[in-house]
Design goal:
3% of the residues lie in helices and 40% in strands. By secondary structure, it is mainly beta. It is globular.
């Protein structure tokens, strides 16, 4: 691997460009070369993230959904996990798990629908702390529709490695009948104590309508802020609209500090489980679902990629020319979040079966894509190892190679899995994905080159949009109310 270099962005929320490059093959030393000036405290955090060895550089922290703010889900230097075997099963936790487990050093952070956070031991799965219980979840009787009962912490949390703080959003019942609150909580990773907790509901949402807003998308940390999005419940009931909200990571108010509301009369939810993506300059990219307007002459930012400044001012947007028809058909573009690719491109697919390549610097407005082609229905979150996007197609994961330049791109399908069909990640030379996005029971390992099945793990019932985590010598997966960990032959 001599001379190999790649860009690494660590930690979540403090993105800077680095190159990790090996020395000659006989050497056990790797060097880290900065491409931009980095504050001294951040250098220390980056070094904590990298495990240096003669075999390569293995990730030891997985602090956010699919590893980083680009949402790549790629641990290129993961040790061999084939054939995998069970390393441990956690104790049964106090509620269902919908978020992806995140990892800080030796702790696996997990959130449940009982409004609880836990830290499990990465080595053997025992509970290091928790449950840290932050509220009473919302019962089915208080909701007009939906498919998660009770409703507590659903989204994937995010960790600030510099301060050892994990952030999550809990939906909690309040003292008022049928009124809920979306509380942003900050918890100490070391011991599980709550550092602060505040409602992040914007004043523009009437109290009685807050229960129709669901916080499903993963949180993002960037620009010294936590970014939170809101969408609706399954069934699209009630008066909800899509929102992006931010709060200072240090807990100082106001809450929310900034907000962006999708300019539609109703709906336009931002709910894709992968959450906002953040570029190296701190701009936020989100994708919306179906909106109220089905009139092509009355664009309301439904089924769109929206680019926001760090302070949540809209900078640009993209929508396919079919956006109005897609709204009428409930064909959300935002069933997954945007994937930030090399060469300044964004990959996006959704429910309408089409894949799009869009320039991040100029999204292009309605019909502004640089390339589109029929692909598949995409849910959850995708993975990316340049130049290939691994797409969470409902009829089987596809490896989609991006070709050409940012000005004239295209894509081709390299392979199509017949077994795995959920949000994938990449660990070493294996793509890992469950059999379905909708409560499957099998996790598959696929050969990265041709999609052939190299591992089949019967794991028990999973929740919707389950995605694994790969860190160090462990492959982690949440199954209903517990976590499983697998290891390879050398683990």
């Amino acid at each position: 691997m001599s001379g190999y270099g790649r860009r690494v962005r660590f930690p979540a929320g403090r993105d800077r460009a680095w190159v990790v490059q090996s020395m000659p093959a006989h050497s056990s030393i790797w060097k880290v070369v900065t491409l931009t000036p980095i504050p001294r405290p951040v250098i220390a955090v980056v070094m904590a993230v990298l495990m240096v060895s003669a075999a390569g550089c293995a990730i030891v922290n997985w602090p956010t959904y699919h590893l980083n703010n680009d949402r790549t889900g790629d641990d290129r230097f993961a040790p061999n996990l084939i054939p995998p075997r069970l390393a441990w099963t956690s104790p049964t936790l106090d509620g269902a798990i919908y978020g992806e487990p995140v990892v800080v050093g030796s702790k696996v952070i997990v959130v449940t629908e009982n409004d609880s956070l836990y830290a499990l031991d990465l080595a053997d799965g025992h509970v290091r702390w928790g449950p840290t219980h932050v509220g009473t979840p919302v019962p089915q009787s208080a909701l007009n529709c939906g498919d998660i009962f009770p409703l507590g912490i659903t989204s994937t949390p995010v960790v600030d490695l510099a301060t050892n703080t994990v952030y999550a959003v809990a939906e909690v019942t309040t003292g008022s009948q049928n009124v809920v609150s979306h509380d942003l909580v900050a918890v100490d990773v070391k011991g599980g104590a709550v550092r602060w907790q505040h409602s992040i509901d914007p004043a523009a949402i009437p109290a009685g309508n807050r229960r129709d807003h669901q916080q499903r998308a993963a949180l993002a940390l960037a620009n010294g802020r936590v970014y939170v999005t809101l969408g609706g419940l399954a069934g699209d009931c009630g008066n909800y609209t899509g929102w992006v909200l931010s709060a200072r990571a240090d807990g100082t108010g106001p809450f929310p500090r900034q907000s962006y509301q999708v300019p539609t009369a109703r709906e336009g939810g931002i709910w894709g489980p992968s959450g906002p993506a953040v570029d190296a300059t701190g701009n936020i990219f989100v994708t919306t679902g179906n909106g109220a307007s089905t009139d092509p002459g009355n664009y309301d930012h439904a089924n769109s990629i929206i680019k926001l400044s760090p302070s949540l001012i809209e900078l640009d947007h993209f929508a396919p020319t079919t956006w109005a028809a897609d709204s009428a058909a409930d064909a959300d573009l935002g069933s997954t979040g945007p994937s930030l690719l090399a060469n300044g491109l964004i990959f996006q697919a959704g429910k309408n079966g089409t894949g799009y390549l869009v320039k991040a610097r100029n999204l292009g407005g309605i019909g502004g894509q640089k390339y589109q082609a029929p692909l598949c229905r995409d849910f959850g979150g995708n993975a990316y190892r340049a130049p290939v996007v691994y797409v969470a197609c409902t009829d089987g994961v596809r490896a989609v190679q991006v070709n050409g330049t940012a000005h004239n791109p295209s894509f081709t399908v390299l392979w199509h899995s017949q077994v795995a069909a959920a949000a994938p990640i990449v660990a070493g030379n294996v793509v890992w994905a469950a059999d379905t996005n909708f409560g499957g029971s099998t996790l598959y390992g696929l050969n990265i080159n041709d999609g052939a099945t190299v591992a089949t793990l019967n794991v028990g019932t999973m929740t919707h949009f389950t995605t694994p985590t790969a860190v160090g010598a462990r492959l982690l997966l949440a199954v209903t109310d517990k976590v499983l960990a697998f290891k390879g032959p050398g683990g």
